[in-house]
Design a protein that fits this description.
homodimer, Rossmann fold, 2 domains, 7-stranded mixed sheet, 3-stranded antiparallel sheet, 8 helices, 10 strands, globular, DNA-binding
DNA sequence: TAGATTGTTAATCGATTAACAATC
DNA sequence: TAGATTGTTAATCGATTAACAATC
């Protein structure tokens, strides 16, 4: 029986299970055991069962988990069962690369606009969307019901953009700028810091 | 006195301290307390002291930490005190965006080549480097003493690329492809999974 | 010196692992 | 049924926080 809240590491793993299950499903299997998930993800079978148990009882002793129902349940738990609108702010190289992702044109996510503050970019197309003036962000996201914002601006602009996003009704932000953002009231932020990752792998370089 | 090994979360924070110290140094301060670091990073003062204590005693009671010496010491601990050569494999949108990063043309990192397996890309320039045939990777990285590899290929190619990198003497890999790589013997891999991050923020969207 | 701040120890908190009774 | 595998409990492990004596 699901007791309190699931720990964050569990949530991260949930998305790994989801990817694993999609693949297993595509392969046509309709059942998988926690041991099978371990084999494919490297996450131990006990951990898998523990993680899932935060959300309910999905398996049958002796049989394992029915792939498709579990996929459906986990998608629902992760709130990936209805389309989410996304905007990207910062139409530089990284913003453009992310805007091109097929994953942002899927049944789960749809990219509705990109924004920049650079006049020479505003009005131009970026893949299949238009680059808009960032000052229009709150209005546009409000009108369209955008729920997710991706920040790919330089560090200096990030905090201001986060606040515009909050104004525009966005509640979840993925921040790629190399700076700490103070979460506007009511928003969740996840940070992806590419230079930090690069520095961290240096630490793990073999010591001379 | 530094006892055993530092936990991984500590290493991640080290790179945050480093960024903070660089900024503080640029502002011309020459001393900072753990409380000052807390103010700028959000990491509690006690945590800061604990983290640093895994590596030595860097502060003076009553005074705090001398910024420049600490910067030097931490850079050394993180192995960021001499230049590291980097290659990128996968010259798609993301690879191109990362290859354009100024941080890869710094005193810490230098990008020496990009690789792809697509004949129409091989031989073309990508920013200031040339796109080479991925089959040449082991030879080139070996010759040039490349230590870090960045993978921005599709999932299917990632494992093979990691093995080529290992052959070429690369010991640390940053993997952006959405798949689990089994580390070749002697290599460390860090994974950055953009679609996963996007899925995870959906979990934290306000529940209806 | 007195005030400030470190480094470290002990207490707490949280997550992972091991193990097994329940059950398909 | 017998074998397999779940969900869960208890034990372990590891990281964070609180607190304070040492000391600049």
């Amino acid at each position: 029986m699901p007791t309190g809240r699931a720990p964050e590491p569990t949530v991260l793993r949930l998305s790994i299970y989801l990817r694993c299950l999609r693949q297993v499903h595509a392969e046509g299997l309709d059942t998988i055991s926690s041991a099978g998930i371990q084999e494919r993800t490297g996450i131990t079978a006990g951990q898998v069962r523990k993680d899932l148990s935060y959300f309910g009882e999905f398996g049958k002793p002796g049989l394992g988990y029915a792939v498709e129902p579990l996929l459906t349940r986990l998608s629902h738990i992760m709130q990936l069962d209805r389309p989410r609108k996304v905007v990207i702010v910062g139409a530089g190289n990284l913003g453009a690369a992310l805007a091109g992702y097929q994953g942002l044109r899927s049944s789960i996510f749809s990219l509705v606009a990109a924004f920049d503050n650079n006049l020479s970019k505003i009005g131009r197309p970026l893949w299949d969307v238009e680059i808009k003036d960032v000052r229009e962000l709150p209005r546009i996201t409000q009108e369209q019901g955008v729920e997710i914002g991706i920040i790919t601006t330089p560090a200096e602009a990030a905090q201001g953009v986060a606040e515009l996003m909050a104004q525009g009704g966005i509640r979840s932000i993925l921040n790629f700028s190399p700076t700490r953002i103070v979460s506007p009231q009511g928003t969740t932020i996840r940070n992806v810091d590419l230079m930090k990752e690069l520095e961290v792998i240096c630490f793990y370089l073999p010591k001379p």
